[in-house]
Amino acid sequence: MDRIRRASTSPQDPGAAPLEARRVAAALPPALNKTFVVEVVATTGSTNSDLLARAADLRNGHVLAAEAQTAGRGRRGRQWVAPPGASLAFSLLWRFRRPAAQLMGLSLAVGVAAARALEDAGATGIVLKWPNDLLAVREAGWAKLGGILVEIGPASARETRVVLGIGINVLPITAQGIDQPHADAVSQGAHADRNALLARMLARLAEVLAIFEAAGFASLAADWNSLHAHTGLPVTLLREGAQDLQGIAAGVSADGALILETAEGVHRIVSGEVSLRV
After folding, report:
1. What phi and psi, each to the nearest 5 degrees, are found at residue 192?
2. Residue 1 located in a structural domain
3. Which of 127, 154, 201, 258 has the most crowded CB, counting CB atoms within 10 A?
4. What's the domain range around 264?
5. What is the pLDDT of residues 57-110, one digit of tens each?
6. Which residues are known catalytic residues?
7. Count of structural domains within the chain
8. DSSP string of 83-95?
């Protein structure tokens, strides 16, 4: 979660088994064994930063997962710390045969894959918050379950290297310094341990990224809208350096922009400009 300072879990918690590359590989569908190379480290600063630094030397589909991150990053510079044994924090290096300008909506597409993987593991009440958060439905509202950070690496005339980072709270945690309600996959009904859950994530990512490569986000917009937490609800968009906008969230467009219906008309909100609060 954003701004976690301290967290603890019990070693007896279900799903707290150590991450192991061989166990992840064994849980993958056989057809994907050549698609992904899984690497697990005990501790690192940031799996995203590590893959970005090594992108030129790694093959497509390289996965880096860490038991603990000391300098994990969320959107807009926020800190994301993965408590040892309680979270699933990993990054995937992917090469697109598209220029970076044609990758709009990619973080939303990754959100669809992550949500579907959690559902595959038995979790219920999983929804998406624009542009890159996974939420869990609670009686009192929503609680943050995970987040996505997509970073563009070096590009050539033939391809664009992208690092896709995902952080998921898998087990209940006790933490200080969290400024919003938080949830975990096990409490939402997920029954897979972290190795199996990572394998499910990779399987869904392979499916969604193939669709995105072929047709862009437009082919996934309906899937994202079906998972949107705030469709039809009044929201306030907090904009840096500009006046806040209030209106009705009307889902996302074919390019991933949030559509906000206000008294003054319809606004298209582009990723990176705003923070959304109900």
Report:
1. -90, 145
2. no
3. 201
4. 230-277
5. 999 999 999 998 887 555 555 555 556 788 999 999 999 998 998 999 999 999
6. 75, 144, 277
7. 2
8. -TTTEEEEEEEEE
